[in-house]
Specification:
This protein has 10 helices and no strands. With 193 residues, the protein is mainly alpha-helical. 42% of the residues are buried. The termini are far apart. The model is unreliable at 1-15 (pLDDT under 50). 87% of the residues lie in helices and 0% in strands. It is elongated and about 60 Å long.
Length: 193
Amino acid sequence: DELVGQVAENAAAPIGGALTDQALAQREATQAKKFFQEALPLCQEVRNEVVRQVSLYRLGCLAFYEGDYEQARKLFEQGLAYFRERGGKYSVRLANLWSGRLALHQGDYRLAIEFYTQGLRLADEMGDKIGMSDAGVELGLATLYQGDSEQAAALFKEHLPLLQQTNAKRGIAYCLYGLAALAITQRHWKQAV
């Protein structure tokens, strides 16, 4: 039963993420929200808590994109607690990443750094290079906003090559944005442009 739960979690999180990302890319957040909400009672009926939690977590991502930060925070906290209890490193890493994004967006750089650092550590433990780069670049942004430009520069320079190798465009864009912001803070105008 435990093995089945772990397999379901490892499959459900990426699938839920892919569905959410695809719906957002197609500007169909309303449709994604509807699907996740419809999945919740079915998950309860068949006693699939993993998919239920992933659905709630993904509803948190949608709430974040819609600007409902309080709802996003509640859903991220719930998902993080659930997956920490279950030992689901992949899901905990993702929940840390999204919780960090929310904290960063709300200007709580200390909390964002805490979430990103935890996510980076988990990605490292799992050997998840892309997860490390995602967390590393966003950690770089949080440290930059907190005023630690040396640490931010080191993080951007460390993670940009892997992002470029894997053609992770979103991560590359964040990293280049961070390097440009860093150049501006250090008054290297030509590098920033």
